[in-house]
Amino acid sequence: MRIEGREIAATIFEDLKKQIEDLKSKNIIPHLHIITLTTDSSSEAYVSQKRKRGEGIGAKITVENLDPQTSTEELLRKIEELNQDKTVHGIIVQRPFSKQINEEEIANSIDPEKDVDGFHPDSIFAPPIAESVLKILEKVLELKKINSNLIDWLKSQNISVVGRGVTAGGPIINTLQENGIEPQIVTSKTENKSEILKSSDIIICAVGKTDTVKGGDIKKGAVLIGVGMFKGEDGKFHSDYEEKDIKDIASFYTPIPGGVGPVN
Q1: Annotated active-site residue in 50, 114, 135, 193
Q2: Pick from 165, 167, 168, 201: which is nearest to 184 by CA?
Q3: Which of 213, 207, 220 is nearest to 242 (CA)?
Q4: Do 198 and 219 touch, CB atoms closer than 8 A?
Q5: Which letter, b or e, does each residue of 20-38 get, where b requires 16 or more Cβ atoms within 10 Å of its Cβ?
Q6: Can 94 be counted among the known catalytic residues?
Q7: How far is CA 212 from the centre of its chain?
Q8: Which pLDDT belongs to residue 134?
Q9: What's the predicted TM-score (pTM) here?
Q10: Sign of the CA dihedral 98, 100, 105, 106?
């Protein structure tokens, strides 16, 4: 069964609209400033959605496109300007970065109170991508009609996360572990990948490459959450798995587009 992220997102958006209306009554307009340094098509698509959804709930969204060759020092100066700007409430430096950029230094330079992506170790925000996955799994729990809270249920499941990148797999793994859940981690160097996936009740795939997970890799009834995506030769966005290969095997799965993305 497909889990439609747009339906979950619609509920979140309505709640956020109400919150922003309340803030505006106090003369506060939430302002998110997004910096980009890449022409990566997946990132451009995400930034476009962030602008559209942010403006749709009444927030102010600024997208600043910097030269891909911008240095770490130049970017740090720009971030410090935004840290000091009291009219800016949230800062995102969109991944992926150019090769000359020191990712850790940039992540640690953003004011933790403005780090809405949750990459700073002291950020007051949980990583949205991890929160999105939990929100979708909460929907799965509801549809399964299991009388349990989400975290207790997840602790009872064999969970694997495919990919451990800084933008998706890593934050998801960290969030699960912070909740006392120990997922099995699958990377390109994992020798028993097939064995791990076949024994998994829940697979969270966050790679962004074709055929990362195939129908023969999963057991009947598994839950499959697709986070990674890429643009194919057909010009369309695709998941780490092909829907037609897994839809009759997985009990629940997210599509791309329309799955994790809208919730994120």
Answers
A1: 50
A2: 201
A3: 213
A4: yes
A5: beeeeeeeeebbbbbbbbb
A6: yes
A7: 18
A8: 97
A9: 0.84
A10: negative
Q: Write down the catalytic residue from 94, 139, 184, 193.
A: 94
Q: Active site includes 69?
A: no
SS3 115: coil
Q: Is 234 a catalytic residue?
A: no
Distances (CA, A) of 202 to 133, 139, 154, 164: 11, 14, 9, 16
Helix (H, G, I), strand (E, B) or coil at 126: coil
- Within a 10 A sphere around the Cβ of 251, how many other Cβ atoms? 14
Q: Per residue of the chain (264 residues), what is the pLDDT tens digit? A: 999 999 999 999 999 999 999 999 999 999 999 999 877 777 788 799 899 999 999 999 999 999 989 999 999 999 999 999 999 999 999 988 888 899 999 999 999 999 999 999 899 998 999 999 999 999 999 999 999 999 999 999 999 999 999 889 999 999 999 999 999 999 989 999 999 999 999 999 999 998 899 999 999 999 999 999 888 888 888 889 999 999 999 999 999 889 998 898
Determine the Cα–Cα distance for residues 185 and 244; give it in Å rounded to an integer: 25
Which of 111, 115, 117, 240 is flagged as catalytic? Answer: 117
Q: Which residue has the tokens 């329309």?
A: 258
b/e for 62-81, b at 16 or more Cβ within 10 A? ebeeeeeebebeebeebbee
With contact defined as beta carbons under 8 Å apart, do 106 and 79 qualify?
yes
- Would you give the distance in Å from CA 125 to the centre of its chain? 13
| CB 229 within 8 Å of CB 212 | no
